[in-house]
Amino acid sequence: MPETHEPLLKIGELAKSSGVPIATLKHYIREGLIKPARKTGRTMSWYAPSAVARVRAIKDLQQQQFLPLDVIRESLAGDAAAGDELTAAAAIAKVLERHTGPKTCTREQLVERGVSPKELDWLAAAGLARPGADGNYRGDDLVLLSTLGAARKAGITAEMLPFSILGEYVVALRGLIEIELRLFRDGVLPRARKQDVSRLATAATELSERLVVVMRRKLLLPVLQRQIEEDGHEEARDHRRDRGVRRKHQSSSGQRRRRRPAGERR
């Protein structure tokens, strides 16, 4: 019986089959995550059908396990250390999943509950709340939307707290998260036994969440007090400056009154 081979895929076909945009696939290629099975020209590449599953796995590791591309590349290549990081990421994902629950909600249901379509679009563009392939919001995306919805119900309007303020939260929290993960990857993983990685990742994730809540509570009032004092100093400087301007104006007005033109009737 003659040997049969599955036809190779163009990059557009790979994008359609995997559900990943061409621009993302090109990024994966540059990062060495996927390679063409054959090239028939400088700009024409063909990919094996097995690349579809590989691309889906890469995207899942990015979105669900929160792994960076360098770790994904090493883990797919079978690197032992990256395998530990994969185990750690899986444990972290389980902890986060416990906090979110199994609830789902569609865009239409959210809009019916008063969420603005414009705000949903902004959150999706920012990568903060996106529906899954089935069109449902779930997990932390849904928790985030519920939290912001609770703020609206409490009377905190969009003018008081626009969704765009979350951009500043993301910048601040990303720095904190990068520190936490670097400490774990550089401090814990190299010293942990392989069978302990999952347990230690779970413990570290739960500890980190509690630590952030406690530290925020401890810092909230001192930071508020500092802001009030800084505002008070600024108001005092403005008051002194305004008073100086008034005195200068009054002095100039008095000098003009004393200088009368020649021949003016007294």
- Strand runs, count: 4
Second rung of CATH, namely the architecture of the domain at 1-63: Orthogonal Bundle
Uncertain residue segments: none
| SSE series | HHEEHHHEHHEHHH
Which whole number gives the mean pLDDT? Answer: 79
The geometry reads as: elongated
* Name of the CATH first level of the domain at 1-63: Mainly Alpha
Give the strand order, joined by hyphens, for the main sheet.
Answer: 1-2
Specify the biggest β-sheet: 2 strands, antiparallel
- Please state the structural category: mainly alpha
Task: Explain how this protein is built.
This protein is mainly α. It has a domain at 1-63: Multidrug-efflux Transporter Regulator, Chain: A, Domain 2 (Orthogonal Bundle), CATH 1.10.1660.10. The chain has 10 helices and 4 strands. Helix 4 (69-76) crosses helix 5, helix 5 packs parallel to helix 8 and helix 5 crosses helix 10. The model has no long low-confidence stretch (mean pLDDT 79).
Topology:
Blueprint: H1 11-18, H2 22-30, E1 38-39, E2 45-46, H3 50-63, H4 69-76, H5 80-100, E3 104-106, H6 107-112, H7 117-125, E4 136-138, H8 139-153, H9 166-188, H10 197-258
Antiparallel strand pairs: 1-2, 3-4
Task: Give a short summary of the structure.
The chain is mostly helical and 266 residues long.
Short key terms for the protein model shown above:
266 residues, mainly alpha, Multidrug-efflux Transporter Regulator, Chain: A, Domain 2, two-stranded antiparallel sheet, 10 helices
